[in-house]
């Protein structure tokens, strides 16, 4: 019986403390959400006021987004600069693994990408699917951003979880200029994804004639087959892409 009373006494003694901690956690979470929301709305005064109250500049919402990520997503350069000056961590990743520089690269925010690189952003970080900032720029045809990333020494041959590189994304999506930029930078023109697709095979499958031309001009190996055993020429025949078929038939291997 004495033991029971001791336990009850301890619970009564510490109950206010536990309640205070829970309230404090809820309040801290609300403030974190308020900071991220203020950044999303571009309310720099509210962002500054919350930071002045002691809210961490790197506070996250339930999706793992920071104020910097929201500012970048919205293309708000002034707020991005302000948050950087406040010590925002540029390499934080939200729940899906996206970083601020990935977001900026996707939307072609070249100036923001430059700012993030200048303060040491890791441009080779991968999200949960293995994609990088360079890949997002290639997927969306953001050639200017790609040039910034290349100048910063990005790994041009890095691959995602499906074995795709930036060149393969550019080829699949038909971005001839991006493909040319990557080729001039020395990207592996014959790299394969996990299905054995090369940039040439993907460009052929998607009927991206201009990309096929650029790849052929840069001495791509037309003899490579995918895991189905088909070359680009065989895909062009199967899909009846006459212009691409004619190009592939008249192109001789470089070696």
Protein model, in words:
The protein is mostly helical and 255 residues long. The protein folds into 3 domains: 1-89, Alpha Horseshoe (Serine Threonine Protein Phosphatase 5, Tetratricopeptide repeat), CATH 1.25.40.20; 94-155, Alpha Horseshoe (Serine Threonine Protein Phosphatase 5, Tetratricopeptide repeat); 158-255, Ankyrin repeat-containing domain (Serine Threonine Protein Phosphatase 5, Tetratricopeptide repeat). Helices cover 58% and strands 0% of the residues. The chain contains 14 helices and no strands. It has helices at residues 2-41, 44-52, 67-73, 77-85, 100-107, 110-118, 133-139, 143-151, 166-173, 176-184, 199-205, 209-217, 232-239, 242-250. The longest helix is centred in the first third of the chain and has 40 residues, at 2-41. Residues 4-8 and 17-27 have low confidence and may be disordered.
Short description:
The chain is an all-alpha fold. The protein has 14 helices and no strands.
Q: Give the count of helical stretches.
A: 14
Domain count, please report it. Answer: 3
- Overall residue-averaged pLDDT value: 91
| Distance between the first and last residues' Cα | 91 Å
Strand content: under 5%
Major sheet summary line: none
CATH topology of the largest domain: Serine Threonine Protein Phosphatase 5, Tetratricopeptide repeat
The outline comes out as elongated
Kindly state the number of beta strands.
0
Order of helices and strands: HHHHHHHHHHHHHH
Uncertain segments are 4-8, 17-27
CATH class of the largest domain: Mainly Alpha
């Amino acid at each position: 019986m004495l033991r029971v009373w001791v336990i009850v006494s301890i619970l009564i003694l510490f109950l206010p403390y536990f309640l205070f901690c829970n309230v404090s956690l809820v309040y801290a979470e609300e403030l974190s959400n308020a900071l991220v929301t203020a950044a999303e709305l571009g309310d720099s005064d509210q962002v500054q006021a919350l930071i002045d109250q002691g809210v961490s500049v790197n506070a996250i919402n339930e999706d793992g987004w920071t104020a910097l990520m929201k500012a970048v997503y919205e293309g708000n350069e002034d707020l991005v600069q302000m948050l950087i000056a406040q010590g925002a961590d540029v390499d934080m990743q939200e729940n899906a693994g996206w970083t601020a520089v990935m977001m900026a690269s996707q939307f072609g925010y070249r100036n923001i990408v430059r700012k993030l690189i200048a303060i040491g952003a890791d441009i080779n970080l991968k999200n949960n699917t293995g994609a990088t900032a360079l890949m997002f720029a290639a997927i969306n045809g953001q050639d200017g951003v790609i040039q910034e990333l290349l100048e910063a020494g990005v790994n041009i041959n890095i691959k995602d979880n499906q074995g795709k590189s930036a060149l393969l994304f550019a080829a699949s999506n038909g971005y001839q200029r991006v493909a040319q930029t990557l080729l001039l930078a020395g990207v592996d023109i014959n790299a394969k994804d996990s299905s054995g697709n090369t940039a040439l095979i993907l460009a052929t499958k998607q009927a991206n004639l201009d990309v096929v031309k650029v790849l052929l001009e840069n001495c791509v190996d037309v003899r490579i087959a995918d895991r189905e055993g088909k070359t680009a020429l065989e895909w062009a025949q199967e899909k009846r892409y006459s212009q691409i078929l004619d190009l592939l038939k008249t192109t001789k291997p470089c070696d």
